[in-house]
Amino acid sequence: MKNVKLFLVASGTFLIVSCGNNKNLNQPPREEYIAHIKNLSNEMHNATAVNDNTARIAIQAYSDFATLFPNDTLAPAYLFKAGEIATAAKKYKTALGFYQTITSKYNDFKYVKESLYLQGFLLDNFLNDDAAAKIIYEQVIAKYPTTNYANDAKAAISNLGKTDEQLIKEFKEKNEKNR
């Protein structure tokens, strides 16, 4: 009980100080979000496995930052990081949403090609939506034809709908022909 009271007092003090220093009371200070995100990132890097609770908090922090500061240069990078964490935490629909936001709002982001490809990858490998995956893979090929992502998308299309057993059989047959 003593810890709960201490937490409430500390939280209240933090809020009062934060609001007192913030010129726009409706928007939290950018630097505080970045510091919070760095702490979460360090905690995740030091962990030996994905902690679901830390992952959930980190995903929310990255997402909140991008929502509150959509024009900040860190916004697409934080969305991408949220997508990576969501994928690692097996929250594939959530990850898909982050990558979709990147490709629709941040066309100049350095990982926009990868974000588009990852949409197809998630749909193909984790969300079992071959039709939607094919559409995304075709977009990758059309928009970025000279990239490795286009090559990977072509290979993925050729494997859509095949079972693991079928893929293994094809791989073995291909290896026997190359001997």
How does this structure look, described?
- This protein is mainly α and 179 residues long.
- The protein has 9 helices and no strands.
- The model is unreliable at 1-23 (pLDDT under 50).
Kindly summarize this structure in a few lines:
The protein is 77% helix and 0% strand. With 179 residues, the chain is mainly alpha-helical. Helix 2 runs antiparallel to helix 3 (52-68), helix 3 runs antiparallel to helix 4 and helix 6 runs antiparallel to helix 7 (130-143).
Features:
mainly alpha; 77% helix; disordered N terminus; single chain; 9 helices; elongated; 179 residues
| Binned strand content | under 5%
Which segments are poorly predicted (pLDDT under 50) over 5 or more consecutive residues? 1-23
Number of strands: 0
* Continuous helix count: 9
Determine the fraction of residues in helical runs and give it as a percent range: over 70%
Specify the biggest β-sheet: none
What would you call the structural class? mainly alpha
Shape: elongated
Q: End-to-end distance, in Å?
A: 71 Å
Q: What is the string of helix and strand elements? A: HHHHHHHHH
Give the radius of gyration. 21 Å
Mean pLDDT: 86
